[in-house]
Amino acid sequence: MENTHLSQAIQFIFAGLTSGSIYALVALGFDIIYNVTLVVNLAQGEFLMLGAMTMISLHSGLKLPLPLALVLSTLIVGCVGILFDRFAIRPLKKPSIMLLILLTIGGSTFLKGVALLIWGKDPYTAPTFTRIKSISFLGASFSPQMLWVIGTLVVVSFVLWFFFGRTLIGKAMRACAENQRAASLMGVDVKTFVMISYFLGGALGALGGMLIAPVSFMVYDEGTMMGLKGFASAVLGGVGSYPGAVVGGLVLGLLESLSTGYVSSIFKDILAFLVLLCILVIKPTGLMKRSDE
Amino acid sequence: MIRITPYILFAVFIYLLPAMLAGSYWIHVLVIIGTYVIAATGVDLVVGFAGQLSLCQAAFFALGAYASAILTTTYHVDPILALLIGMLFTGLVAYGVGAPVLRLKGYYLAIATLGFGLIIQSFLVTMAQYTGGPDGFRDIVPLNIGSYTFKTDEQYYYPIWTVAMLILLLTRNIARSKIGRAMLALRGDDVAASAMGVDIARYKVQAFVLSAMYASLAGSLYAHSNRFISPQMADLSRSVEMIIMAVLGGIRTVFGVLIGTTIMKSIPEVLESFLDYQMVVTGAILIVLLLYMPQGLIGVVRSVITRLRLRGER
Amino acid sequence: MGKINAWRFGIVPAVLCCFALVFCVSSASAQKKPAIKLGVNLDVTGYGAWLGEPELRAVQLFVEQVNARGGIDGYPLELVVYDNESNPEKSSSNAKKLIQRDKVTAIIGTAITATSNAAKSVAQEEKVVTYSLSGSYEPNYADSFTFATWVHTSGMVETIYDYFARKGIKRVATLCATDSTGQTWHDETEKSAKKYGLEIVSERFNVKDVDVTAQLAKLKATNPQALVVGVSGAPNAVVAKNFNQMGFKIPYVTGHGNISDTFLKLMEGNEPETLLLPGAYYIVWKELPDAYPQKKLMKEFAEAFQKKFKKEADIYAVVAYDAARVTAEGMRQAKPEGPKDSPRLRDAMELIRNFPAVYGGTYTFSKEEHRGIKKDAAVMIQVKGGKFVMAK
User: What is the CATH number of the domain that holds A258?
Assistant: First the structure.
């Protein structure tokens, strides 16, 4: 009896960590853009979808080897991010938070529409990164793709920590976020850093999409829900906080999975947003930030 | 006096229109436009005047619609009473969501309303025993005032547009009142507002609750005239559409709301053979609108007129 | 500065032109030759598109065939088609447009339950025959003007349970989506389980879920002998992947709405060992003996569809084709000239008895029965070698 309970619990935890990692990747991309530009980018989910679709087209359609398709898709969607900023955000003459949010919503609708025209309404599947079908661990079984997902999050987190904490460019980008005017007065090229932040945002979103596509499937409007949950994770952890994004994503994923396992599957969809509302009411700055930040 | 003339002319035009269109399919479209004008006016109030981004107006619309549907069809409550109960209920819900969040930084309301809208939509799908679930709620009882029952689109046209015009008038008066002008002047500058002793948060909540009640009213009318509703009506994309309706014609103007709603609800009719392009078109409209025409179409016309006048004066 | 001016200036007349265009188009389409008009209100784009597209093709094929043979007793059959984008609001607008503007005598559509429900109020209010192609749409109620196709989900569930009875399966687990199809499957599997004396445990999931291992783990703990998955389309791929991952060895049964090539492609590489679905006899028409009464009809349809569209006709095409056939049969009796004659058309359709179905089985209608087809038209089907074959 003990074994079944333990293996069930492990099953739920793995499922939670997997979806949580995807949310975290979306949240990280979201945070990067926010930190440098103060834009709440609601099109983040579409970057996820585009990354997956592009990879599938390159690999299954053009028959490119998987690793090459992965790298190319990341670069392509990163560039889409740059274009997004250039044409949908930058031209705004009088930026206000409200207008910016609405613009990103408009951008998200546009990108979805473009995806619909290119790929249609059909669902697409992608092959898993490794051929092994299933791994068993203490009675729980899961797909090795889950390890890829969680592993990528760990690597990405480390790379971002190093980039923003230890490199000159990263530190300059953080300076940008603190005070754009001061930064430009000190010779920092704000426009370039904005471009970099959108590139990274697009790339991270795409990465999330490519990791999750082999686990389920991808359709032109699949990005929206993922984007919103990733966004909820970012708010949960504290908007703009990178550790917050990771913690928020994993916590959300685990909450969803454990509630499905131990309570009921019916409330899974709304759980993310209930948590979001509660956080806003109780501690709007999120879990990881101090209240006065 | 002169300022009232366009409105009176418009009212006369509205009442004569059905006779001119005589049994055409467009009366059905106009009935839908009428209900959405009511909802879009509410959006204009909270987004245009109070400067708050509410992304769940469609959810309030759905709450009103489902309240009316369930109360009248399952529990045999009088339709007008059900409509008022729906408005009260939606107003209370809006207060519950808005009050704690509106005292926070600008975009928090956007986030909260986003989440709230999704919760409502999910709720409507899950509580299938009461709401009919994802297949929607069909055979809604028709609206009746006393012994007169409204059945056809021609019959619904008049009460719906009468309410729409009254709502536009009411909102115009709110806009020109002390409260409206205060909100407008201090919009976006919370520090100045509190320095002057104005409790801007209270006005924001009021605008939010009022807009929710407008949406609920519109939803109830829609439910009775369409006889069928589904959880799709609460979707985020519908809320975004409503925002476009308020902004496209010209924010904070009566005719702007009318133009914006008419265009948005006519696009699917016009784009009949190019439906796959609809999403791209909507997204592009929103982006172009916000970037290049934030004052809406009326704003464009106004600036064109001003420019022509200036040229003439040279 | 100058560039933006032109942009702004151009938008207003452009919009006005659009409106002028619409009015021109609508008045132009009002003038047509007298013929029997058949309206189509289908989900050609949007969520239900994978159903709506083949359905539209089948109706087009039928109309072509009828007109090639001289129409319905000499009256040409004319088709008017609108896409409702799987949107309920558009669905009722389309229905009104078809009746008020285009003056059709009957409407075929829609593909999914939500849009069919939306069209229902219009059908009843305007008293125009409307033939739904959705499997869970309910057409039987007082003075009904709507009809429906497919063996109802309850009939399909019974087909499954009959099969379980033959195989000695008594403990059943179900995993149903929270969407329309899933809800129907959940309700029907629970209801029929009592009738058949089966032990049943159920879980739900969202069609957008990327992982259902939590739900499957809970079900596995009850040691079921079969799993019934209540969802149509892509989400089945997720469930099947997780199902295999977790090492289940029991039969995996899913709904009739999945019988299509898209499903086979999605499941490629992830098929459970025993993958079963209840479905119409049409699906396996090639295996049927020539003596089977509808075989000739099925063969003719399959070949005509393949020839015209260079694609195999799936079950969605079949139900649409049958709906058109039944409606035409009623039109033969009633000869409707406009929407006002639709009540006579409805009455004529209710008199149809033992009309052979391409689907399998026969249609028998009455005042109370607007679906007309029973579970004897369905059979258990298995996926073997990437194809649908009769289950043993």
Answer: 1.10.3470
